Please model this.
Amino acid sequence: MSRNAEDLAALVRERAGDAPVRLGLILGSGLGHLADAVDGVAIDYTELPGFPHAGVSGHNPRLVIGTLSGVRVAVLGGRSHYYEHGRADAMRLPLEVLKALGAEGLILTNAAGSLSPEVRPGDLMLLSDHINFSGLNPLIGEPTDARFVPMTEAHDPAYRAALRAAAQEEGLPLAEGVYAWYSGPSFETPAEIRAIRILGGDAVGMSTVPEVILARFLGLRVAAISTITNMAAGMSDENISHEHTKAMAPLGAVKLERILMRFLGGLV
Ligand code: HPA
Model:
C-alpha cells in the first residue's frame, strides 16, 4: 500500500467519518445515478491528489462514502481508462484507497457491446470471467512477487452467486458471460468481433479488466456486471458510438441498481 493511499484514506476519514467501508463500487458510463442514492459524503476527485482526472463524458468523477442498503460503501463515480492516457494502472491509487478504508470487495459496472445474439441492448450480463484482449497489464513494472496474481477465480464465485440470487429475487433476468477487454478508444471492427467470439467472448468493452487485476492484486474480492448498450460491431445495423452508449446505458441502469441494492441488503 503506498504512503499516498494511506494519506488519502486519512483525508477521506476526516471528511466522511472513521467507520470502515465494507465494499467499493465503480460506476461505468451512464450508470452514475446510483451514487445519488448513497446517504453520505461526496468528495470530488480534484480534491484527492493523484486521483485520475476522469475526462470521459458520461462519468461523474467523485468519491461518495456512505450507506447504501445498510452497507457502508465507497462509490467511485468515475473511472480512468487506458485509452485516455496509455496507462493501464491509472485506477491503482483509488483502489488502494478503498482497500485502506477497509473494503473487502469491489463491484464494477460498465457499458459493453454484446456478442451473444440472445443478450440484447438494455440487458445485464454478470461477468463469469474475462479475456484480456488488449495484451496490457496494470501490474507491469510492479517490482514485488505479489505481481504474480492468480486469476483463476478472479470473479468471486460467492459474490456471483449472491448477485444471481439478488436478480432472481428482483424478478430480473441476468445473463452471464465472458467480457473481453479491448483497449479502445476506437470501437472494434467486425473482424475483431468475430475473432473475440471465436475466442469465447460474450461481451466487449474498454474498461474493467485492469481494475479486476488491480483489485485481485490488493486482495479485494471482485464481481462485475455489464449493461449491454449495443450489439457489437457487425452484429446489427444499429450505429455504435459513445453518444449511443450514453443514451442506452440508463436502460439497464435501473435494473442494475435494483440488483445491487438487493445484493448489498443481503450482505448486512
Ligand atoms: N465495444 C467496446 N466498448 C463498448 C461497446 C462496444 O461495442 N459498447 C459499449 N462500450
About this structure: The CA atoms of residues 214 and 224 lie 14 Å apart. Helices lie at 3-16, 82-85, 92-100, 157-169, 190-199, 209-217, 242-267. The chain has a mean pLDDT of 93.
